[in-house]
Every structure is written in C-alpha cells, then in structure tokens.
C-alpha cells in the first residue's frame, strides 16, 4: 500500500515517512525545497525494503498538487491509500503586526494544501473503497494561542476539514482523522526563546518535550487496519498539555 507524506524531508514528516516504511508501506516523499535531505531520507527508507521516491512540489499551489499526484501515480505504479497532510509553516506575530501576507501564506500552506491534496486523492480512494487520511493539526487549533492567530486558524480549519470529509466518505471505507501535536522538538520549535520553551515545559504534565517519533507512531495507528472504526477524531499527542 502506498502512503504520501507532504513536507516529509525533515522534522515530523520525516519521522512519519520512516515509521510508515517500517510498517511496510511504500512511501512517496513530498518535499518543497531541499532535495538533499529528501534524497537522504529516500536512501534510508530504501534500506527497509519498500518502494519509495521523492517528489518536489509546493503543496500550497493547486496546479503543483495536481501534477504531484499524477507523478506519484505514474512513477510508483499504484494509487495512494494513505495521505498524510503534514506540510506546515509558522509566521508568528501579534495580530496588529500580522500582515495579510503572513495570514495568507500560513493559511495557504497549512489549510489550503490539505484541501488540495485531499481533493486529488479522494476519487481513487473512493473507487478502491479504502483510504486513510491523516491531517497534522496542532493543539493551538483547539485552544488558540496569542501571536499565532494565522497558525491557530489554519489548524482549527484543518480540524473542520477532517470532520467534514470524514462524514462525507465514511461509507466508502475512508477514515479521516487529525493529530494535534503539542510541543515537539523540530526546526519549527527550535526558533523559540529558551524562556518561552521553559514556560511551555511547565505546562506539560509529563514534563517532557515530544519527539517527531511520538507523532509518527500515532500516524501509523491511524494508517493501519487497527483504526478502521475510528473516523473524524482529533488525537492530541501532547504529553497531557490540553486534555480537551
Ligand atoms: P518543520 O519546519 O521541521 O517541517 C515542515 C516541513 O513542511 C518541511 O519539510 C517544509 O519544507 C515542509 N513544507 C513547508 N511548506 C511546504 C509547501 N508549501 N509544500 C511542501 N512542503 C512544505 O516543522 P515540523 O515541526 O516538522 O511540522 C510538521 C507539521 O507538524 C506541521 O504541520 C506543523 O504545523 C505541525 N506541528 C508541529 C508542532 C511542533 O511542535 N513542532 C506542534 C504542532 C503541530
């Protein structure tokens, strides 16, 4: 079975691609800029004995998404059974300082891209009467966060998208779930000031920052047969930070 992971060359996406490969999935690796890290990941996944290839595309661009899906199908010689909408960016600042470009860039990458990718894979999944769509949201999509109006809105949006598509396609054997990571150690959180990180750590009941693998394991569950009776759900992978 083939899984496509968007924004997979580093961070959480990379860990997801590896975990799915370890679980026997063939993996299409989407990347936006750095082909070097995508190639490294491809070589690592190849050693696991599954089929894998890298595909450059800016998933916030609809035309690029349509040609991405065509290239994946043509070169992997199978249709996508598992879609992981992982690509994401932040442009944090307080509302008054947030430029419309900051708002649009974040919504385009974090929300529009998930819609584009979902729209382009759903027909094949419906035909196969099988599919798994896993959207990477965030706990701030549930709670909101000062300085992240654009990011939190995009992640709240992805939760609405998840539940709506889950309802539309439940009868076709397609499950659609979201994962809401809390504070995970990647380049995205690397930029935060030490005092901000310390404050966040205090708010996590398990008193630990999460790893990309923590998220990847939850994705593997939603990608598997074991989660067949679960759809439209949001699973927080956050060390107990939100509990809502
Ligand atoms: P990261 O910055 O390490 O990786 C993001 C990946 O997305 C990169 O590979 C980047 O090239 C790719 N990407 C960005 N724009 C793209 C585009 N237009 N087309 C294709 N690829 C694109 O960030 P991280 O932490 O691995 O984030 C992964 C996902 O997890 C994101 O959706 C993020 O919002 C979410 N998340 C991360 C949390 C954290 O604490 N790190 C917490 C909650 C959610």
Query: What is the straight-line distance between the termini?
Result: 33 Å
Largest sheet: 7 strands, parallel
Low-confidence stretches: none
| Shape estimate | globular
According to DSSP, the number of beta strands is: 7
Quaternary state of this entry equals single chain
Strand order of the biggest β-sheet: 3-2-1-4-5-6-7
- In helices, the fraction of residues equals 40-55%
What is the C-alpha radius of gyration, as a whole number of Å? 17 Å
| SSE order | EHEHEHEHEHHEHHHE
Unique bound compounds: 1,4-dihydronicotinamide adenine dinucleotide
Number of helices: 9
Based on secondary structure, the structural category is alpha/beta
Q: Mean pLDDT score, rounded?
A: 97
Strand-residue proportion: 15-25%
Describe the structure.
Helix content is 48%, strand content 16%. It contains nine helices and seven strands, in the order E-H-E-H-E-H-E-H-E-H-H-E-H-H-H-E. Strands 3-2-1-4-5-6-7 form a seven-stranded parallel beta sheet, with helices on both faces. Helix 1 (11-22) links the parallel strand 1 (2-5) and strand 2 (26-31). It is globular. The chain starts with a strand and ends in a 7-residue tail after the last strand. The model has no long low-confidence stretch (mean pLDDT 97). Bound molecules: 1,4-dihydronicotinamide adenine dinucleotide. 1,4-dihydronicotinamide adenine dinucleotide is lined by residues 6-7, 9-13, 30, 32-33, 58-60, 86-89, 109, 136, 138, 181, 183-184, 186-189.
């Amino acid at each position: 079975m083939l899984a496509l992971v968007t924004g997979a060359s580093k961070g959480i996406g990379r860990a997801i691609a590896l975990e799915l490969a370890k679980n026997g999935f063939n993996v299409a690796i989407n990347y936006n800029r750095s082909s070097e890290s995508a190639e490294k990941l491809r070589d690592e996944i190849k050693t696991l004995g599954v089929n894998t290839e890298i595909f450059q595309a800016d998933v916030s661009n609809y035309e690029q998404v349509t040609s991405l899906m065509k290239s994946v199908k043509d070169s992997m010689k199978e249709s996508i059974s598992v879609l992981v909408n992982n690509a994401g960016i932040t442009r944090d600042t307080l509302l008054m300082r947030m430029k419309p470009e900051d708002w649009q860039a974040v919504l385009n990458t974090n929300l529009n891209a998930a819609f584009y990718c979902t729209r382009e894979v759903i027909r094949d999944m419906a035909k196969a009467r099988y599919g798994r769509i896993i959207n990477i949201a965030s706990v701030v999509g549930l709670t909101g966060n000062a300085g992240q109006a654009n990011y939190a809105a995009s992640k709240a949006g992805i939760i609405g998208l998840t539940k709506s598509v889950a309802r539309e396609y439940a009868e076709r054997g397609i499950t659609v779930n979201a994962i809401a990571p809390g504070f995970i150690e990647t380049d995205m959180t690397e930029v935060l000031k030490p005092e901000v990180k310390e404050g966040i750590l205090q708010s996590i009941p398990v008193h630990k920052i999460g790893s990309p693998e923590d998220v990847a394991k939850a994705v593997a569950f939603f990608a598997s047969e074991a989660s067949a009776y679960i759809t439209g759900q949001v699973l927080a992978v956050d060390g107990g930070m939100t509990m809502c």
